Amino acid sequence: MRLIVTTFIGVVFGFFVGVSFPTLSLTKLNIPSSLLPTVDLSYIEDKKSGISTQTILNAWSSTRSNNSSSTQSNDTSKIWVTSNPRGAERLAPGIIAAESDFYPRRLWGKPSEDLTIKPKYLVTFTVGYSQKKNIDAAVKKFSENFTILLFHYDGQTTEWDEFEWSKRAIHVSARKQTKWWYAKRFLHPDIVAPYDYIFIWDEDLGVEHFNAEEYIRLVRKHGLEISQPGLEPNKGLTWQMTKRRGDREVHKVTEEKPGWCTDPHLPPCAGFVEIMAPVFSRDAWRCVWYMIQNDLVHGWGLDFALRKCVEPAHEKIGVVDRQWIVHQSVPSLGNQGEVKDGKAPWHGVRERCRKEWTMFQSRMANAENAYFKSLGSNSTTH
After folding, report:
1. Is residue 219 within 8 Å of 320, Cβ to Cβ?
2. Domain coordinates in residue numbering, the chain
């Protein structure tokens, strides 16, 4: 009898000792990945799964065997695809993501369900917080078909969250930089590839008479690859080409002051828009981006060279008159310069703008001369 009681007590004691130990979790064991190639072990902890340990071990064994034979037949070290992007030759083409976008993604859920809408167009403004009211009015002219991207030259970003749209916008901040500095570094053609048109605008534009969707419609209708809205004729005009005309939808040529145009199909009489509010098609921007110089941040001279990116330029570059804007000429970025020799900050900024224009013209001429010279030497050799 004593033996039976002792045995019973031992069994009960052993049972309680056993259940007091924590459940074994294989996911927390330090097992080499080569032993667990592709099996998700988290389900082992599910006591109701009904999957036996032996079944799991059999799956491991089968997977290891399959991977071993696959590795022998497919030696990934032998992949070399010359048509891949530079630096990605060792990757199988099917895994390469050569382009990207500015579409925000969730941190949860299925990636395929992240986007309820994919904007077809991109608009960028290079801004300081002092122009918030103007930018707020401008952004509201662009529908949900547009991704809004703000480049902040004054370092103030979160302050813009007083506007509801700002919480959906993309914000990039670098102090005292211009829109062409930003464009060169953040608007690579492979990043903006999903967008049919890219607006690269200043912050001091009045948009009371502008509608973005209608603008796109007119650009498509008239086959414009590079364009801008017409400018209010009574304020801030430099060139006749960008002056709004009230009797038409679009114009592509103009007459300038005597001697300004050596050819009626060349800038500033045709093939010309200014750099304050340009709009580029995807293909045109791919060319223009490569023409932007890293150190020439103001973009002066680009307007006269844009024609090199479309052909024929006098037909594919134009001004949209029916959707027009006002250039308010607020020197906000100019005031980000430095006082030198007692002169206001904008003096130094303007001086650099002029120097950059000369430098850009010189670089373009030298590059083209070198190209044609190389053709001549090659033809002579052959």
Report:
1. yes
2. 2-69, 121-366
